[in-house]
Amino acid sequence: MDLNGRVVLITGGARGIGAAVALESAKRGARVALAGLEPQQLAETAARVGPGTPHFDCDVTEMASVQAAVDGTVEQFGGIDVVLANAGIGTYGTAEKGDPEAWLRTVDVNLNGAYRTIHAALPHVIERRGYIAVVCSIASFAPLAGMSSYNASKAGAEAMVRAVRQEVGFRGVDVGAIHPSWIDTALVRESEQDLPSFREAKSKLPWPIRSTTSVEKCAAAIVDGFEQRKARVFVPKAAVLTYLLRTLITSSVGERLAAAETPTMVPRMEHEIDALGRSASERTVRIDHLPAAHSRDVAEEVEA
To answer: Between 20 and 30 A from 302 (CA), which of 54, 144, 155, 278?
Structure first.
């Protein structure tokens, strides 16, 4: 699919992966629409993408908000060819001691938000026999302690992608799962600063799970996936090894190996989170303190 002249709608488009994908798509000739929170940052990103780039204040936990962004994109451009469901958050905490509201909010943004985006955009994408991509992360098949909400939301998103692909594939629409590993975004950097245990656990992961990729390289891989209408995109490409080994990772042997560090790592992580007094990075907390209509979404995907 040649992106020149195609319409690309991106949720979580204010910064991070979403903003980088917007810039890369525009560089290849696409007409880009952005949806997300952080109005000032969203407007600045839209200006960088190009004059007249539409941007919509959008909370993916509200169906009406997502529908308004889709309708606004169609009104301006006449249709939608590609959708990237990218808006997402990551929170800290174990199932026992983590904040229940933060756990539920993560699932609502990462999984239900992706569903709302797909549901609202599908009629237009079907009309143009286009492509839908959902950021699912390698966390969808490589879970880590202390990130159960993120792991669950991304595993659910991947399963949704596979089901929706069957539902609309015969109608000319392709649906792809995007599987980044660690991406060099502000949220990943802040998470490493917040939690030394997180930083240490990440450093002990096997290659390529522990490697960090620039946001620009991540965006280029995702937009390549748009053009090739890929069923799966791995960032970096070597992350496909994690996918191929997923049965081993989640086997009893794999879980025993992963559990070797948990007797010391999990209590340490819980202590660090308790000392922080919050269940997310400062950037997420700042966004959560926006007015109520904007309190539940973060316009950047944090990958793990």
So the answer is: 54
C-alpha distances (whole Å) from 284 to each of 139, 302, 304 are 19, 11, 16
Strands 174-180 and 182-183 come out as unpaired
**DSSP collapsed to 3 states, 156-189:** HHHHHHHHHHHHHHHHCCEEEEEEECEECCHHHH
- Answer yes or no: are the C-beta atoms of 189 and 183 closer than 8 Å: no
Query: Bridge partners of 135?
Result: 178
pTM above 0.85, yes or no: yes
Euclidean distance between CA atoms 50 and 9, whole angstroms:
14
Tell me the backbone φ, ψ of residue 174, rounded to 5 degrees. -105, 145
Based on the residue annotation, tell me whether 92 is a catalytic residue of this protein: no
To which residue do tokens 């990943």 refer? 188
**Listed residue (57, 6, 19, 235) closest to 138, CA to CA:** 235
> How far is it, in rounded angstroms, from Cα 207 to Cα 185?
19
Tell me which of 92, 115, 131, 150 is the catalytic residue: 150
Alpha-carbon span 220 to 226, nearest angstrom: 10
**What are the chain's domains?**
7-291 (3.40.50.720)
- 3-class SS of residue 9: strand
In this structure, what token pair is assigned to residue 183? Answer: 């991406």
pLDDT digits (tens, 9 = 90+) for 180-223: 988 887 767 777 777 787 777 777 666 666 678 899 999 999 99
Cβ proximity of 53 and 34 under 8 Å: yes
pLDDT tens across 18-74, in order?
Answer: 999 999 999 999 999 999 999 999 999 999 999 999 999 999 999 999 999 999 999
